[in-house]
């Protein structure tokens, strides 16, 4: 009984770790290459186009935390 339960927990940990790894790679590859510079008072601010990087990266962190 205990061996069967530890196998399920181990499988769950492996799946979440793999999911976290894949989502981190997708987030890294989907980030925009550059932004549009906007002049401010003494500073330059870059406006980036909207992209799913933050969402995918956050899902990666959540999967990693659930794995622990």
UniProtKB/TrEMBL annotation:
The scientific name of the source species is Zingiber officinale (Ginger)
Instruction: Write down what this protein is called.
Output: Transmembrane protein
Keyword tags = Membrane, Transmembrane, Transmembrane helix
Segments traversing the membrane = 9-27
């Amino acid at each position: 009984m205990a061996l069967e339960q530890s196998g399920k927990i181990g499988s769950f940990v492996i799946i979440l770790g793999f999911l976290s790894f894949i989502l981190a790679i997708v987030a890294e590859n989907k980030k925009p290459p550059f932004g549009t510079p906007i002049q401010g008072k003494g500073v330059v601010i870059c406006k980036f186009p909207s992209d799913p990087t933050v969402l995918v990266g956050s899902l990666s962190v959540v999967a990693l935390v659930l794995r622990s």
